[in-house]
């Protein structure tokens, strides 16, 4: 038996999937933005520690 595909519903599914991907990407970017300051603080602390040790 042949199954007839409804192009309108298929397009809506594609658009919903694209929206989900966009939201996922936005969440990833927000997550990265939240982590970056902590990462930079960690790097600075490590650099200051290494500098202090190198001048002892």
Low-confidence stretches are: none
Q: How large is the radius of gyration?
A: 24 Å
| Average pLDDT, all residues | 89
Q: Order of SSEs, N→C?
A: H
Strand content: under 5%
Q: The biggest beta sheet, please?
A: none
How many alpha or pi helices?
A: 1
The helical percent reads: over 70%
Number of strand elements: 0
Distance between the termini: 82 Å
Specify the structural class: mainly alpha
Overview of this structure, please?
The protein is mainly alpha-helical and 56 residues long. The protein has a domain at 30-56. 86% of the residues lie in helices and 0% in strands. The protein contains one helix and no strands. It has one helix at residues 7-54. It is rod-shaped and about 80 Å long. The termini are far apart. The model has no long low-confidence stretch (mean pLDDT 89).
Task: Please write out the topology.
Blueprint: H1 7-54
What's the gist of this structure?
Helices cover 86% and strands 0% of the residues. With 56 residues, it is mainly alpha-helical.
Tags for this model:
mainly alpha; 56 residues; rod-shaped
